[in-house]
Amino acid sequence: MFDLSHIMELMPDITKAFGETLYMIGISLTIALIIGLPLGVLLFTTDKGLFLENRAINSVVGFFVNIIRSIPFIILLVALIPLTKLIVGNTIGPAAASVSLSVAAIPFFARIVETSMREIDKGVIEAAISTGASPWMIIWNVLLPESKSSIIQGLTLTLINLVAYSAMAGFVGGGGIGDLAIRFGYYRYDDSIMLVTVAILIVLVQLIQFGGDRISKMIDKR
Amino acid sequence: MIIYLNVERSEKMIQIQHLSKVYQTKEKVVKGVDDVSLDIETGEIFGIVGYSGAGKSSLIRCLNLLETPTSGTILIDDVNLTKLSGVKLRQARLKIGMIFQHFYLISQKTIFENIAFALQAAKMPSNKIETRVMELLEMVGLSEKRDVYPAQLSGGQKQRVGIARALANNPSVLLCDEATSALDPNTTMSILRLLKKINKELNITIVLITHEMNVVKEICDRMAIMQDGKVIEEGQVYDIFSNPVQPLTKEFISSVVSYEIPDTVMSTLAGTLVKITFKGEVAMEGVISDTMQKYRVKGNFLHGSIEYIQERALGIFLMELQGECDEVEQAIAYILEQNAQVEVIRQHV
């Protein structure tokens, strides 16, 4: 069942797939950070009782975030084909898969940022307001530092979700480890490849979780 | 160029006029603050006392608009805060420091950064921030702790950082929201001494709310007592301690100076029970011994103490006066003539 020479033979494919997976989750994580973080801050600060309280913005952003989050990823993958074509130019390969992955990761991460900020004691925010600090200063010097450790935990969670989603991207020819697993392991009943890909994913997820926990603890000054 | 404006400054640092704060819950409307008007003078320490739920916290939080009043106006240093918003409000807040029961420091920033935050809020150039932070740390006695995180400090030390942060921009007012309620008695005393020092040396007007009468007795010049959102009594701390009017005020004072006499002792007493209050300028020993000599009355001390409020003595004694009815009456009249107060608690049996 487990054929070492067969695996060695496919080593270049495995390495390439692994690289593609890292590429996909790297891009989508970066985009989730760039767009999801401000969106999360917006969701939190425009909520009732907070210093940028704005019902309209809060409900509109919240509504879209919920819509994207309620669509199963596999459907999102197909639904976003036109958008992908527009942005990347084609609809297969890791770059194309990164579009759907990013779209899925943004609202997920935004909610995580919002929830992390909810854990901050309201008093600390009020104390900052009472010093006369601007909203921007409060976001930058209070909200982000105070929720940093929790956001890192959330980032870990997002990353692991992305690993799982990126494997799904294989279904539509997105490339990466998932693609390999489907092409060899599933369609060709190649158990060795199946095992190797699963093992790679397990190791990857373990490493991400371990690393995330370590960093989160390390930067926490409480 | 410096332009000196010769403007008549108000004696009143804070003017609260018909302030109300209403909370709307699903079931009912709660009046947190109910038509409160108070004037707080420049340079004084003003204490607001009340049980939790009396509205004192809402009131103090309205003073820097952490809570928006439902109606009424707040003037601080002649600026109508209730009319301000945005940048103008933030500028006004630079001059109103606030400290809290649970300190509320930024846990992920060092003590230095916590204080520097307030200075950055005032847009102080970064090359001046370091000097100012060190100055403030020295004032609160925490110079060595500049690079430490709040979690490594004791409660009293955290409050000192809170004070340094609140004073960073040389405010004219310092609001203290139950600032010593989470501290042990010794630490409370040291924080109160620091507040007093700040008040004296920097001439900062301090408003504090507390449920501890001891705090008021220790440092306040004037005080107000709140109940159900209203101010029910207000005046000089000394006057209120010597002449409380409202039952709630008496209750609060009895938490500091209590004259409870055990029932078993009460039942053995046959004479007239009086409470004699001596204010600072009356020589108490003299009055009592003179009375005993002049009239055929025997005095029995049951309880008593001399409290020092704002460095003025207040003596309150419970005595049993034994003797003929008219002798006792004359003795009481004599004590009253000496400018002491006498309250007959129980006529002789």
Automatic annotation (TrEMBL), chain A:
Alphabetical keyword list: Cell membrane, Membrane, Transmembrane, Transmembrane helix, Transport
Top-level taxonomic group: Bacteria
Protein name: Methionine ABC transporter permease
Family: Belongs to the binding-protein-dependent transport system permease family.
Source species of the chain: Sporosarcina ureae
Transmembrane regions: 21-44, 56-80, 92-112, 124-144, 151-172, 192-212
Main localization category: membrane
Residue ranges constituting the ABC transmembrane type-1 domain according to the UniProt record: 18-212
Any single Pfam family the record assigns to this protein: BPD_transp_1
Keyword Hydrolase in record: no
The keyword Iron-sulfur is assigned to this record: no
